[in-house]
Amino acid sequence: MKILITGGAGFIGSHFTRYWLQKYPKDSITILDLLDYAGNKDILDEFKKHRNVTVIKGDICNKKLVQTVTKNCDTLFHLAAQTHVDRSIHSSDPFIQTNIVGTQNLLESSRINHVKKFVYISTDEVYGSIQNGKFVETDSLHPSSPYSASKAGGDLLCLAYWHTYKFPVIITRCCNNFGPHQFPEKVIPVFITHLLEGKKIPLYGNGKNVREWIYVLDHCRAIDLVFQKGKLGEIYNIGSGTELNNLDLAKLILKNLDFPTRFIQQVTDRPGHDLRYALNSSKLRKLGFQPKHTFTEYMHETIRWYKENTAWWKQIKDTSPYKKYFKKQYPGLTRILR
Ligand code: NAD
Ligand code: TYD
Questions:
Q1: Would 275 be classed as within a structural domain?
Q2: Which of 145, 251, 258, 259 is nearest to 203 (CA)?
Q3: Is the minimum distance from the CB of 152 to ligand 1 under 6 angstroms?
């Protein structure tokens, strides 16, 4: 099979590429990634050495490029996106461009070039917040941030291409991922790397916001299963069932790294902060999915990975675009230093 993976230099995309290479060594893979701030050049260099992988550095919004790349693939996994809620609050333009315009560009070229299956990797955040119960796939969408609204735009375009053209799409909506190589702007790597630097950790608001957490490899396994067994034109929630509020998450990481709770610093809350995400994943379970990686064990593994790979995240944290973002995001930074 000829596979196209967009966003293969990112956190989930790189895990997914490695997963696929291992499981289906006969397939050929093309990665299309802009190498934006969250894209990892070293990972792309690693993939470049693989004889079954072609790496293309480029923008999913580039019509000509996307037309050429989709000519030569039969399956597309679309993971490229602008992904961080806080950044989308500071500036939503790149989110609309990549997550909506870029997705439409991929859909249109894939349709013209008769791509056989287009898997769109979406998020639980498109449903919005839920105080009690869990979202099912038929629930309406109430995204609250520019990030989630732009992802919802992508979902709706995929569904429109199915309804209008019978273009073969499948949508997955996953909960929060964690694992090695996650960019240190998302909460788990922010907490871990701050502590490893001896800094306090910034907890938004009262810390009562709840997220459902899945280990990144379980997400990759679920995408594969949905690709193999899912029905065209359908949506599949991908959840682990493990819910945790941010305060408990902070305490767990502190305990793991042997820091006292005074290292938690409550900071100004995120505007429009969703209280809770939770997915009903029975539809996926019916396809035979069970998460394999338990939260506690793999959080421990993840923390170990960040401890052993300080060069990776220090290099990111020491570069100026990150420093600039960070100053804007955590204006009280000097106060939260140890
Ligand atoms: P990430 O930010 O780590 O990686 C995104 C990748 O997309 C980067 O390599 C970046 O260079 C690339 N990219 C950005 N704009 C591009 C463009 N215009 N053209 C080509 N490439 C571009 O993100 P992630 O956490 O790996 O998320 C991957 C996908 O999974 C996203 O679609 C996201 O919405 C979805 N998702 C993520 C989570 C999560 O918890 N991280 C949960 C559910 C769904
Ligand atoms: P994040 O990793 O940004 O994922 P998302 O908002 O897409 O779920 O944040 C996860 C939770 O952690 C969210 O409730 C916001 C909170 N959070 C903090 O408390 N401190 C932080 O520094 C960050 C980045 C997030």
A1: no
A2: 251
A3: no
